[in-house]
Amino acid sequence: EFRRVLFRSDQSWKISAICAFGLGVRLVYWCKTLPGVRAHDPYGHLEYIAFVAQNWVRPDRNAGWETTQAPLYYYVGAGLESLERHFGLTGVGLTPTSVQGMSLVFSILTAIVVLFCFREFARLFCVEAAQSERAVTTAFALYVFWPTVVIDSVRIGNDSLLLLWAAIFLLCILDRKSVV
Question: What per-residue confidence (pLDDT) applies to 32?
Answer without folding.
Answer: 92
